[in-house]
Write a structure and sequence with these properties.
The complex is a heterodimer of chains A (164) and B (587).
Chain A lengths: L13 H14 L6 H12 L4 H11 L3 H10 L11 E6 L2 H5 L2 H12 L12 E6 L11 E3 L2 E3 L4 H8 L4
Parallel strand pairs in A: 1-2
Antiparallel strand pairs in A: 1-3, 3-4
Chain B lengths: L1 E2 L2 H5 L2 H14 L10 E2 L11 E3 L4 E3 L7 H10 L9 E2 L6 E2 L6 H4 L17 H6 L4 H9 L2 H11 L11 H10 L6 E6 L8 H8 L1 H15 L3 E6 L4 H16 L4 E4 L4 E9 L9 H8 L23 E5 H13 L1 H5 L9 E8 L5 E6 L4 H8 L9 E6 L5 E4 L9 H6 L8 E6 L4 H15 L5 H18 L6 H16 L3 H5 L2 H9 L1 H8 L27 H5 L5 E2 L7 E2 L9 H5 L7
Parallel strand pairs in B: 1-2, 7-8, 7-11, 8-10, 12-16
Antiparallel strand pairs in B: 3-4, 5-6, 9-10, 12-13, 14-15, 14-16, 17-18
Helix pairs in contact in B: 6-10, 6-13, 7-8, 7-10, 9-10, 9-11, 10-13, 17-18, 17-21, 18-19, 19-21
The chains are: A alpha+beta (164), B alpha/beta (587).
Chain lengths: 164, 587
């Protein structure tokens, strides 16, 4: 059912709410629609904040715990905001010694984000990963699907600035 | 015939296609020569690949840069371009024709009969290869009883892993009461190292739809769902096109082929959970719940999706069905062993020369699969074991390689047929580390419903990590075995019942490696970093200095004509020197 008002959320604008309403009302009353609804809503909003999960639960006439249970079960759904570009920094020993920590510091300060989070403009997400097995190239950073080797702190901003 | 499967697309088949299209246009050849994009060819190791018909010339490792030369030589002058042809690695002989390459010559294409031959996005090409003839025969000339009987005679068994006889499953569902029944196709191929279902869906989606129509007729179902992985976007896209075309041709929907039989299929996309390959978990997931298994009985043939009688068949199983209808169960049963009939598709990967998809008759010895078709282990390394069945399976060592591909024979040596992932491992693989890798996967994917599986797999992982780090104790081996037995015994679904298999099978065949880790604190394969000393053996070192130049932290001192020395204070154990040293002098 269409609810009278939308909860306020900084990441979801009125146009997005309109699309979300369309998705929810199409799924309302259809048995088993919750996974498809969550997926489509995630495509609209980029991730699934708690307010959106609650909104979907009411719209599909399901309990909040049930919808949250589904959202947290499947690997596809993210409850944290994601950036448009995923930056993976290798935290293997070789990269650590060769200065990945300085690289991370530079990224965090320059784009104002933390490990495991996203920049305020959602341009990047930053993830620290286990050894990428490319120690000869250390320190290694992977942006989306592009691998960069020998990326020192002074070079990283120049590289990331290519990604919008 | 240009392969545009996922593997070849990743190796830039699209840019090759565009370049080829342009060049052909420039030369005015498009009238005579047609570029067809096919599904996965199977020989992913040498992609992007292309087959030129009618000569059957096979080109490999294509790049946009070679296009002008290729078009000029082959298509204008009629001379195959030698340097783009397949070269047999052992004998260095160039083999121009696809059906003479050992990788293809030793195979038997039943399930993959249309791979690389038809455009999967054009239904007419499928029909031209006898497509939907099997369904027509089943719907028009056969009763549901006869369909079930024919499948029973064929001896077809589930290709998803467990190997349950397909005919029996259909018979149970046909006999159970109820006016609403469902046919499901399990396309949630989640084993790491398995990609045969993806290939079938990408190269021949109609064969799966046809199998579902026949199954629906057999049990009298009106609705089917294909549960497909979200991770396979190309397969989902091609399935969607196939369903739309089948509806336009009256092969799905109301009154199929004028027989008064109604059946339709929809795609259901999963959301990333390995356990959803289990039948009851998959049905829960379609119902929009957490994908957790439930106890059986009641079996899905009685109470499945939405509590209605349901059959769930794997992609490869369904792709076999139309051939059985067309040529008869006896024809199908003429190939194979006593308990396992027909063919099986394997996804060969790991330390093997010819990585790709392979379809062989049941009963073929594993040795032939790995050495004749797979080309053996590259780089003069020794074969150690082949892992069958992914995280639910086990490894088969050298001494058992002569067993045939057969459900029972493989189970007897402690592995399973599984969905057909076959990962070859050479002597550099540490079996303890391998067990640890699979356990990491299983504990992460355990849904958490059964405590022995949820907690037990985590404990197994902790013990294996401990052993890999050199903190293993003699009692650990017994604990691993006891705990594994309990997890297998006390878990509801296949994930827990088979999850400890990689541990048990490595313990069975490579106990000495575990013992070396625990007693001698040594990793025989030199893979477990914590157990390596990082010293140079002066007897073996050839004083080449490669390690010193590769070291990222300048921890290796080397001068010309001197044995390299590693400074343990500076060393960060990154393994770079291990990989660079061609002589294995570092230990």
């Amino acid at each position: 059912m269409i609810q009278e008002s939308h909860p306020s959320h900084p990441d979801i604008n009125p146009e997005m709410w309109k699309r979300i309403d369309a998705i929810v009302s199409a799924g309302s009353g259809v048995p088993g629609s919750v996974i498809a609804v969550l997926r489509e809503c995630q495509e609209v909003a980029g991730y699934l904040p708690a307010e959106l999960i609650d909104y979907i639960a009411v719209g599909l006439n399901l309990s909040r715990s049930e919808v949250f249970g589904v959202a947290s079960f499947y690997a596809l759904f993210s409850l944290q905001p994601k950036g448009r570009n995923l930056v993976k920094v290798c935290m293997g020993t070789a990269c650590y010694v060769k200065g990945i920590k300085e690289v991370i510091n530079r990224i965090e300060n320059h784009y104002k984000m933390k490990q495991g989070g996203a920049s305020p403009d959602r341009r990047f997400s930053l993830e620290a990963v286990r050894c990428l097995g490319a120690c000869g190239l250390a320190p290694v950073t992977v942006v989306n699907t592009d691998t960069y080797g020998d990326v020192k702190a002074d070079k990283i901003v120049q590289i990331l600035d290519k990604y919008e | 015939m240009l392969c545009s499967g996922t593997g070849c697309q990743a190796s830039r088949s699209i840019s090759f296609r565009d370049a080829l299209q342009k060049e052909m246009e420039r030369q005015g050849l498009l009238e005579e020569i047609k570029i067809i994009e096919t599904g996965c060819n199977g020989f992913c190791a040498v992609g992007p690949v292309m087959l030129v018909q009618p000569e059957g010339i096979f080109y490999q490792k294509l790049t946009p840069e070679v296009v002008p030369h290729l078009v000029e030589e082959h298509f204008l002058k009629g001379r195959p371009v030698k340097k783009l042809l397949y070269v047999e690695p052992a004998s260095k002989v160039t083999i121009p024709k696809m059906n003479q390459i050992p990788f293809f010559a030793n195979q038997m294409f039943w399930v993959m009969r249309n791979k690389g031959v038809i455009d999967p996005e054009v239904i007419d090409e499928y029909i031209a290869r006898d497509g939907y003839f099997g369904a027509a025969k089943a719907l028009r000339d056969m009763t549901p009883e006869q369909i079930v009987e024919e499948v029973k005679i064929s001896g077809l068994r589930g290709r998803g892993g467990a190997g349950f006889p397909t005919g029996l499953k259909w018979e149970f569902a046909r006999k159970s009461a109820g006016d609403v029944k469902y046919v499901l196709c399990n396309a949630d191929e989640g084993d790491p190292g398995a990609f045969m279902d993806r290939s079938v869906l990408e190269s021949d989606p109609h064969s799966v739809l046809e199998g579902m129509i026949i199954a629906a007729r057999a049990i009298d179902a009106r609705q089917g769902y294909i549960y497909a992985r979200t991770e396979y976007p190309l397969a989902v896209k091609r399935l969607g096109i196939a369903i739309r075309q089948a509806r336009e041709y009256g092969l799905l929907g109301k009154n199929i082929l004028g027989t008064g039989f109604d059946f339709d299929v929809d795609i259901y996309q999963g959301a990333g959970a390995f356990v959803c390959g289990e039948e009851t978990a998959l049905m829960r997931s379609i119902e929009g719940k957490r994908g957790m298994p439930r106890p059986r009985p009641p079996f899905p043939a009685l109470k499945g999706l939405w509590e209605k009688p349901t059959i769930l068949n794997n992609v490869e199983t369904l792709a076999n069905v139309s051939q059985i209808m067309l040529k008869g169960g006896r024809w199908y049963a003429s190939v194979g062993t006593e308990g396992s009939k027909g063919t099986k598709v394997f996804a060969l990967s790991g330390d093997v020369s010819n990585i790709g998809l392979v379809e062989i008759p049941m009963g073929t010895p594993l040795r032939k699969l790995i050495f004749d078709i797979g080309g053996g282990v590259p780089g003069k390394k020794k074969f150690k074991a082949v892992q069958l069945g992914g995280p639910s399976g086990g490894c088969v060592p050298e001494q058992h390689l002569d067993i045939p591909v057969d459900y029972e024979a493989i189970a007897k040596v402690g592995a399973i047929m599984g969905s057909g992932g076959a990962i070859v491992m050479d002597e550099d693989t540490c079996m303890v580390d391998m067990a640890r890798f699979f356990m990491d996967f299983v504990q992460d994917e355990s849904c958490g419903k059964c405590t022995p599986c949820r907690e037990g797999t985590r404990r197994l992982l902790q013990i294996l990590e401990k052993i890999c780090e050199g903190r293993g104790e003699p009692a650990d081996l017994e604990t691993l075995e006891d705990l594994s037995a309990i997890i297998k015994e006390a878990s509801l679904c296949g994930l827990g019942q088979t999850g400890p298999n990689p541990v048990l099978s490595t313990l069975r065949y490579f106990r000495d490696e575990y013992e070396a880790h625990i007693y001698a604190k040594r990793c025989p394969a030199k893979r477990c970093v914590a157990l390596l000393k990082f010293e140079v053996d002066p007897e073996i070192c050839t004083k080449c200095g490669l390690c010193s130049r590769a070291c990222p932290v300048e921890a290796i001192a080397w001068k010309k004509k001197e044995v390299a020395r590693i400074d343990r204070e500076k060393c960060i154990k990154c393994m770079t020197c291990f990989e660079k040293c061609k002589f294995g002098a570092i230990f």
